[in-house]
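Class, study these two lines:
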Amino acid sequence: MAEIITMPRLSDTMTEGVVAQWLKHVGDKIEEGDILAEIETDKATMEFESFNEGTLLYIGLKEGVSAPVDSLLAIIGNEGENIDDLVANFDKATAPDPSETEKETPAVEEKVAPATTPVATAAPAAPTAIAAQVVNTGRISASPLAKKIATDKGINLAIVTGTGENGRIVKRDVEFFVPITATSAPVATSAVTMEDESFEEINNSQMRKVIARRLTESKFSAPHYYLMLDINMDNAIAARKEINALPETKVSFNDMIVKACAMALKKHPQVNSQWFEDKMRINHHVNIGVAVAVEDGLVVPVVTGTNHKSMTQIGSEVRDMAGRAKGKKLTPAEMDGSTFTVSNLGMFGITEFTSIINQPNSAILSVGAIVQKPVVKNGEIVVGNEMKITLACDHRTVDGATGAAFLQTLKHFIENPVTMLA
């Protein structure tokens, strides 16, 4: 008997998904555990495996098409089985409207000449079979299969117009791409006397939509306030140099800060809390999320049991997850369950900034760059290494004095790294 496969909910925040690539085709034999497709969610691109056996009888979504969770994705059944009624009777309210999802949304830069500017008549437009050849100087969004075909054919994806969701380049765009020759391209016969106005519109990705919604909810629902503190990093710099001199050991300043936060949170559990409409949860476990910038926005992989791990272990986990995050290979489970978040822009030279709390958590720490500046030691002005940190707190759960006490403890651990080695 035929079974309907719907768009799965692959993360707790996922409301719709995009079929990045089909790995099976209509008529293929499917075994339980076979990978049917790659699904792009708001957080990652994940492999979707089949829990059914049979023949793939129907594919409901094309590559690059976005559809809500529970939309008709595919049908698996017995070879030759009639599924017309099954498709016709499927709830259309949850399925994408083909007339909308298949509209072409080319990411082509639009130029508008001023109305008073005299321009000579351009040559007739090139045949529609030839794609508009526009150099894309921004991020190139393409499916894995399209990238492979482009590499095999020697096609530069920067000059291919995508017809998938959000201007994504999909298989058909590369297969039917025809470069425009000098004789076929439309050319104006005289120069424009004024500088053209130009703009580019880029459709929001699933990840960008979710980031916008969640940060807006956090900023306008949680009463944020900010506490700032300068940290003397002289001892941390010296300690890091000694630690990294050990064989097969690599610790970053960020690893030291994450470890210090974990230890400080154990002493100040109120900062390690979460707000819900009907209750406040004080967490006795410490799971620190580390903000990682990726191509489409921001993800927060989580180091679970952070207080029980060494700086070396923390660094190894963060580097591994950050690398996989940039390739959209993190699982939703690796981005869930944080009780506190650290966001570090020091590597970009940013000395001070504020962050929006990653709800339902109660706080997030913003870490700036280490800078040399005059400091007073033993009554004398000397050159010191200072780092500014900013703690954003939710006033519903963390009062000012509580946040300040947490920062004092955090400062002690960072300025005395030997206390974190015990």
